[in-house]
Amino acid sequence: MDEARDRVLMGPERRSMVVREADRKVTAYHEVGHALAAQLLPHANRVAKLTVVPRGRAAGYMMPDADDRLHVTRPALEDMIAVALAGRAAEDIIFHEITTGAQNDFQQATSIARRMVTEWGMSDRIGKVAHATDQGTYLGGGAQMLPMSEHTAARIDDEIKTLIDAAYTRATDLIGEHLTRVHEIVSVLLTRETLTGEEFAALLNGETLEPLPPATPSTPPRIAG
């Protein structure tokens, strides 16, 4: 069931893919950054799985627990943005470099922030006014911005940036506070390649995992030095 879920959501595993060790390390810190924020922020969905095994177009991924709530609060949305940006925050803290790995994260964070401001009336500065609608769009296509002045559009852009900057600061502070534990978890993740949510929570609490059982003969992933 887990494999079927992962295949549908992320695509097939790509264990034959040649991955540089430096890229595996960046991926590990990136995904542990997501996982740390998901596990510690009060309104975020907890970690279900964490892996550095490439799957589909992803070099690795953090899968959160399924979320069945009908209504999402502003604090929960702010935590979602922080979780989305925490991977990039971890890269920034550890490597002091910018990579292309956070492209989808930025798109997700920006989409949430924009909807908070333009659709859900969650901006005190912009007010409880709808500036976008998803009604009457041809074949879906997402929300369409309503007519507005240049001044209002600029204020909306400023508010979106404010939400994202605040979330990025929260993620950076959280990772910096738990940096020693981040290093420890990354070391384990690079060795085991995949962690369950329970294993990640145990490591975050300073516990030690049971040794892995002897591996059955298989084709190992090719790692480029």
Describe the structure.
With 225 residues, the chain is mainly α. The protein has one domain (11-211): Peptidase M41 (Methane Monooxygenase Hydroxylase, Chain G, domain 1, Up-down Bundle). Helices cover 52% and strands 9% of the residues. It has helices spanning 2-10, 21-40, 74-95, 103-118, 150-177, 179-192, 197-204, and strands spanning 19-20, 47-51, 61-64, 132-133, 144-145, 194-196, 223-224. The strands form three sheets. Strands 3-2-6 form a three-stranded antiparallel sheet. A two-stranded parallel sheet has the order 1-7. Helix 2 (21-40) packs across helix 6 (179-192) and helix 4 crosses helix 5. The longest helix is centred in the C-terminal third of the chain and has 28 residues, at 150-177. The two termini are 34 Å apart. The relative contact order is 0.18. The mean pLDDT is 85. It comes from Deinococcus daejeonensis. Residues 17-202 form the Peptidase M41 domain.
| Element-level helix/strand string | HEHEEHHEEHHEHE
Gross morphology: elongated
Q: Got a strand count? A: 7
Structural class: mainly alpha
Low-confidence stretches: none
Helices, by number, come to 7
At the fourth level of CATH, the homologous superfamily is Peptidase M41
Pfam families: Peptidase_M41
Organism: Deinococcus daejeonensis
InterPro entries: Peptidase_M41, Peptidase_M41-like
Protein name: Peptidase M41 domain-containing protein
